[in-house]
Amino acid sequence: MTPVIALVGRPNVGKSTLFNCLTRTRDALVADWPGLTRDRKYGEGKLGEQPYIVVDTGGVSGYEEGLDSEMAEQSYAAIQEADFVIFLVDARDGVTASDHSLANHLRQAGKPMQLVVNKVDGLNEDTVLNDFYELGLGDPFPLAASHNRGVTSLITDVLDGFPDAEPVDTEALYGQGIRLAIVGRPNVGKSTLVNRMLGEERVVVYDHPGTTMDSIAIPFTRDEINYTLIDTAGIRRRKSVREAVEKFSIIKTLQAIQSANVVILVLDARDGVVEQDLHMLHHVLKSGRSVVMAVNKWDGMSEEQKDEVRRGLNRRLDFMGWADLHFISALHGTNVGHLFKSAQRAYEAATSQWSTHFLTELMQGIVQEHQPPMVNGRRIKLRYAHLGGRNPPVIVVHGNQVDKLPGSYKRYMENTFREVLELRGTPVRLEFRSGDNPYASTSNKRKQRR
Fold first, then answer.
1. Is 121 annotated as a binding residue?
2. From CA 361, how far away is CA 354, in angstroms rounded?
3. How does DSSP classify residue 401?
4. What is the pLDDT of residues 333-373, one digit of tens each?
5. Where does a domain end: 112, 131, 159?
6. 288: annotated binding-site residue?
7. Bond prior to 438 in cis (omega within 30° of 0)
8. Is 77 assigned a ligand-binding role in the annotation?
9. Which residues of the chain are under the pLDDT cut of 70?
10. Binding site annotation covers 20?
11. Is 232 annotated as a binding residue?
12. Final residue of a domain: which of 324, 350, 376?
């Protein structure tokens, strides 16, 4: 299980800076859910082979009113969702009443946590840390997030309390068949689509209890093909769960994407493609999962409106030309059946297997059609190719000077491999590796003799 780590503290104590250090990127997933007064940032990091999810929460002082009070409630909900809490305080401000208030809340929550004193750069650490023992949260950890000092030691200590990541047997966890995860923003029609997909004729469905990843797996059969629908957070109608907790369920959605073979991304035809859709799509592609896109609520729109939506989709999703796009009505069932055909085709493409001989011949044909460029008077040579992985397909190309291949040529090879291999619905990754020259040492010795 991937641990979820929440960063909490007063405003301006350095939570976002630490978030960027832990994820090693500023390209974090932003959950711009309706009703939120502030954006929430979710990111993934890895220490060695141990992955983790980080949640950057809004600042909490304990004395919020109005909109700030709603924002604080979201932060408190994140604490409940997390497996571990990093409580940040400001070394330069010292212990404040807000720190005491939040410390009391964390003690009541009973979550594993670490008190972190940020911005200790330029200060006497021993003197500063002594002041924070009065919070009663154990030994404080010194940190200078803006200089990335102490970050590695902090995350190492945090992850020591979690078991090492082990490969997940998804077939044992979710059952056999094509694993489908339906994801999308709130109110785009995911629940209606799930019910429609499970309620058609020739569908045999039975309940499956929640898994260790806290998502619900629903195995079913359609046209003699086995599927497992991974019910991502937000699909279930849990009336007893507070709205604040529901909005933080994106963590479970990220985990469901990792466990799927094919992701069906649901878009709202009336909203078009918004930033949150692109952020979610970015995470799906980063995970290497196959994609089928469904534009829901297509019914009741005029032809003029439909044309405008198509133009917007073509403009914002031009980089997804390899993925099937369906215009559906989950409410009335229009074109929902086509999603299964696209999902099956994407799954077959993602899990296909080709011999080294076949891929090498295909690569040679690509090279003959368009030769790699010359570098320093020498032609870049590509020797052979083989399959390096599946779901998504990874094609490894060996040669010399491959690190000097221009991006345009790599894209040319990727597009040609995709077209010839008919890789519809799945991303494909090309890895280029240079082979060592077996005569390099002999050549160097000759030069030394001269």
1. yes
2. 11
3. S
4. 899 999 999 999 999 999 999 999 999 999 999 999 999 88
5. 159
6. no
7. no
8. no
9. 1, 25-41, 61-74, 164-176, 200-217, 231-252, 435-450
10. no
11. yes
12. 350
**Amino acid in the structure at residue 253:** T
- Domain with 66 in it: what CATH number? 3.40.50.300
H-helix segments, 35-81: 67-81
d(CA 29, CA 12): 21
Q: Which residues contact 445 (CB under 8 A, 6 or more apart)?
A: none
Residue with tokens 């083989």: 386
Known binder of ligand: residue 318?
Answer: no
* 34-44 tens-digit pLDDT: 333 344 567 77
Q: What is the pLDDT of residue 66?
A: 39
Q: Where do we find the tokens 């001989």?
A: 357
pLDDT of residue 235: 38
Tell me the sheet residues that pair with 8.
Answer: 87
Note whether 152 and 20 are same-domain residues: yes
Domain extent for 84: 4-159
185 is an annotated ligand-binding site residue: yes
Task: Describe the strand order of the beta sheet including 141-142 as a list of residue ranges.
Answer: 29-31, 40-47, 50-56, 4-9, 84-90, 113-118, 141-142
Number of domains in the chain: 3
Cα 334–187–319 angle (5° rounding)?
70
> Does a structural domain hold residue 439?
no
Kind of pairing, strands 113-118 and 141-142?
A: parallel
443 located within any domain? no
Domain co-membership, 321 together with 368: no
User: Is 117 labelled a binding residue?
Assistant: no
Q: Is 94 annotated as belonging to a binding site?
A: no
Is 45 annotated among the ligand-binding residues? no
Which long-range contacts link 308-315 to residues 24+ away (Cβ below 8 Å)?
309/269, 309/272, 312/272, 312/273, 313/272, 313/273
